[in-house]
Please model this.
Amino acid sequence: MTEKAAPPAFDLRDVSFRYDRAADRGRAIHAVTYAVGAGAMVGIIGPNGSGKTSLLKLLMGLLRPESGEVRVFGQPLAEWSPRQLARRIAFVPQETPPMWSLTLRELVLMGRFPFHRPFSGWGWDAPDDVRRAAEAMRDMDVDGMADRLLSEVSGGERQRAVMARALTQEPDALLLDEPTAFLDLRHQLDIARNLRRLNRERGVTVVMVSHDVNLASQCCDELLLLHRGEIARQGRPADVIRPDILEMVYRCEVIVDEHPRSHAPRVALSV
Amino acid sequence: MSDGAWRAAGAGRTLETPVTPPSLSAAGAAWTAGGGLSACRWTAGVAGLVVASVVTGAGCLAVGAEPLAFGTVLRILGQALRGDGAEIESVGAVILLQVRLPRLVLAFGVGGALAAVGVALQALLRNPLAEPYVLGISSGAAFGATLGTLFGVGGAVMGLAMLHVWAFAGGLLAILIVYRISVTYRALSVHTLLLAGVILNALFSALIMFAVALADPVRAFQMMMWLMGTITAPDYATLLWLGVFLGAGVAVLFSLARSLNVLTLGEDAAGALGVEVTRVKQLVFVVSALMTGAVVSLAGLIGFVGMVVPHAVRLIAGADHRLLLPAATLAGGAFLMVADTIARTALAPTELPVGVVTALIGGPLFMYLLVKRRAGVA
Model:
């Protein structure tokens, strides 16, 4: 499955996007050209409002670029049906408020949606789907609460359930929006290790948006630093996590040293 | 990818998470406990509701100015089904087959359709208070039907079809306005949507009143009764037409059950999971407008069924639309059969409009849900 010679997983060519076409200030992404190689692990970082989430949604076709082209696994996005895309790429959005009495198991089973025919409203959950969902829940450490309601569990547990749903899709690429935002230290570590493992052992392409610069620095092979909708810097963590660059983009004083074990660059703030 | 590899890729758990017992409010989750929605659970739930609906219906048939024994009801129905005419000329049989049964079947169809449309709109707009009446779709359809009546449509089935077209157009117009507003004010949608419904209701009511004022007094009274939501015994040709029409609409909604499940996560998440969001939305809107139009042109404005019933069913059956949709449809039918029986017997010989009965039940629940939502509980 690890075809290193394959076309890039995601290929953005001169992509621009605005939320409000009438107003220029609605500009979210400006002329971004960037390729995510198949099997890469990329972190998208940047200040609030720099266009991180917009870029992630453009990769998945949830937003249509105003100009430029997005290719996914070598094919233009327009040639993919939503179902086809969802069989290859899983998207983990930021926490969505729970609706009604959905159980964790029901949420995770939705990961099998793209594998069902359209208009197949009838039909039950195949034992195979149930088994895959159970495995994903075990991997994400939420199997003990499979039958609890989403509204009854903590934000972190919800976040892990959403991760489990993505795993149930058995994707070739994972797009994550702040995957560790609601998690305590142990579960941050769990998610990070999981992502690394999926990437290393299965060749799953991982693109994650994160506010946690240090986590991104440790996990990812490559970082993309966004600033006002444009790429401020891209490259290996050591080339991006530098005080001069970060101070320019974040406009605050930062201290950059080295992680004692992984030797990845580490950012510290002095309050 | 092979399963083994996926299992290997999973994280090693370091600590055991204590198994938390499900709380009482998770009673609905019992349906899916232990592994998804199985054929067995689905069949048990739906079959149970079918039996309950039939028993409720037979009970409603027995009640009235001329009380019939429960056994008599079943016997006459059985004879009618077999085409055996032993008692078919009796007073009881005439009351039952010509008056009460068609009216009961109409009530069932109307209630089921309103509940099904309510469930679908709630999923699409992610708002448990969404419902054709509350959102102004019913009054839009009523306005269309009023125009149709004013411009004169005649004939039993063809005239009815034309009336449906008018009502459908009015309902669709209302849906499009409501949706447009909910898209424009995405962040405020829950309350803005209700506000949009209030405004639409006021607007369409004014237009309808204008039309009523132009009609002669007898006609105006009929129109007022119809607007308040009244089930009258239809002929069997009308029932057949309505049955086919509503049945087709409900079947389309059922076929979208999985998509509706995923859409409750929001449009972005649903799109990322492979739902063709725009197509599903268009389909649900058109089908909802068609069904609401048919219901309104026959029975007028019957409010809150589409909210009360899905809310109650969700507590028991859970939120999975594969079960929720058929269950709410059956329960909605049963609910309106009972409501209509109350309407025709409570103040006998005077008949209440059934819309008054459903509003008396639904209004307080609506307020309760609104307050609960505001308090951040729901």
